Amino acid sequence: MEDSLDSTIKSTPPTAPSPAVDETTLPQTQSTKSLWQRIAWGKIVLFIISLFLFILGITQMKEGARDLAPLVQNQFSVTNPVNSLGFGWLFAYVIMSGSPVAAAALTFFDAGVLNEMGTFTMITGSRLGASFIVLFIGFIYVLRGRNKRDSLGMGLLSLSVTGSTYLVALLVGVSLLQSGVLSQAQLQSGTILNSVTDLIFDPLVAFLLSYLPRWMLFITGLGTIMVSFSLFDRCLPEMSVKESQVGRMSRLIYRPWVMFLLGASITLISMSVSVSLSILVPLSHRGFVRRENVIPYIMGANITTFIDTLLAAVLLNNPPAFTVVLAEMASITIVSIVILALFYQRYARAMLYFAGWVTASNRNLTLFMVSILIVPLILLLV
Asked: Where are the alpha helices (DSSP H) in 12-145?
């Protein structure tokens, strides 16, 4: 036995020593490679394209807005702030988005079609109409057989919170514009940014003008902006919410100021209130958040949603347009902070009661839906 074991050991060839491995460089190389691979280059490219299209769309709308003055003032009867409020509201319904309508209001103002107050109320109307998209998503959930109260509740809250705060903010904003306290607040680099964009985009617009009538540029610009927002939505990172994560954040979710800042932050990143609010519909349906917790979230989202409109004002190089957008943001911020600081609980109960009343019966829901269609029509015809 021992002889056979010895022979086996002797017949086994010696193993060559393995080369030395630099343990300090290998992990670093692997981590660097994985970091490089983790960068979502496709999303970065989409963001650059979306930003390019957004500026191109604003430039087109600015060029084509002047030729639409007779159509807006005569056919749609947009001749006073009340008309422009209804016009912006209905316009946002039609294209299912508020930001392009707000950009259109600024280009109308730059072209002299609307005055300062008319521009302010049209932008306010665009925000009222934009909240309809959340209610529309809720209807899709109802058509898929989901509970009507849970599916429509988030959209109703979005509409009621947006409507109640913006209508009060409308009075505050008008006072701010009339007082002139915001007139001195301007972005000093607007002229530099505008000159750079002129060098890039003016030749493109001139090329389009050689094939299209001037008024058509407004329509193509509006379509370009909608495409840019669609591409921007695609370049946002995917959000995955786990129950354990929600459990760890439960204490924060119940704090109104935390949800207020969360809604403002998410909308600031996405630059779309439709995206940030639409997230709430599936989260609410799955029980991750309750309706009473999202009211301050909606209020925060309604403030930072003006970031893209503020950028459009800078691109137009129109200081009064910048002041109008700033008045929108300041007025809704003041109203939201007053509500949160002084009587948030009573306000939240009122909003929840209203949403519950609308979904209590089909008659109430029909009455509400008819109302939000008729009211902007009446405002447009006044």
From this structure: 25-38, 41-64, 69-70, 81-95, 99-110, 116-130, 132-143
